[in-house]
Amino acid sequence: MIGHIILRLVIWFLLTANFSLANIVIGISIALLLPRGSTSLERFQDLLKGLGRIMLSIPQAYQEAIELMLRPHLQEEIVMERVSKQRSPGLIFLDIFLITFTPKTTVLKYDPAGWYKVHHLRRRQPR
Length: 127
Description:
It is a single chain. By secondary structure, the protein is an alpha+beta fold. It has four helices and three strands, in the order αααβαββ. Strand 2 (105-111) and strand 3 form a beta hairpin. The termini are far apart.
C-alpha cells in the first residue's frame, strides 16, 4: 500500500513539478483516493525497480532534449516493443510513462496481447 502511494506521489510531482503545500495535499489526496489492488512481493520489487528507472530517466530526458535542440533528429521509426509478462495495470502505466517521458520516444498504442507500439526519433544515418 505504501509503495502505491509513493509511486503515485512521485508521478504526481513529476507531472506537476510543484512542491507547494497545496499541491502536496492534492497529491496525497489523489494517491489515497485512487483504487488499488493487492500487491505480491514480485510486483512490489517491480515497483521499486520502476521507481529507480524513473530517477534514471530524468537526466536522460534532459540530455535528449538538449540533443534535439542542438542537432535535430529527422528520421522517424515505429517499432513494436514487447511488454514483460504478467504486468499489473499500474506497472504497464509506469512503462508507458517512462517511455513517453523522454523526448525521443512516445508510446502510440498498447496492445493487451503484450506489445507497445513506440514512435522513435533517430538521427539520420550517414550514407
